[in-house]
What does this fold into?
Amino acid sequence: MRDEYALPFSAKTEAAADKENNTDVISADMYKGKICDISMNSFMCGVIRNALIVGNCGDIVCFVKRNRYGFFNIRKSQGILIKCDAECFKEHNELLTGKCTAYINKGTFFGGMTYAFSSITDISKDSITISTGNFQSVVPLCDVSVIFMNEKIK
It folds into this structure.
C-alpha cells in the first residue's frame, strides 16, 4: 500500500513559509479612526472590545475606551477586528504619565505582571517607569501588553 495524496500541511510553498517566518506586523495607521475589537496574547487581558484607535507611537498603539486613553503593543496583538468607522476622533500619538493599570507580558500567554493601582511616572524612548506604592519598576516597551489609563480625557 502507498499514499496517493498529499496532506495540506506538507504541501507548503516557499512563499507561504516565508510569510510565516516574517516578523513584520501590520501598520497601526490602517486602524486609525476605527472602532475595533483587539485580541491580545495575554491571559490577564485577552480582548479589548470597542476601542477607538486614535494613534500610535512605534509599536504602541493608542486607543480610547470609555473616554479614557489606553495603549497596547501591536506585536502582542493576535488580531484586530474592525467593527465600524468612528464619527470623529482626535489623533493622539504619545504615551502618557499618570494613574493606570498595566499588563506586562514577556511573550508567553500565561504569566507576566499586572500593575494595578499604579502610575506611569517616567517615559523614555524604549521603557516606562511604573510606580506602585513605594515600589518602582522600569519596564521595556517591548514587554508592555496593555495599559489602561485611569484619568478621563478632558
In short: The longest helix spans residues 14-21.
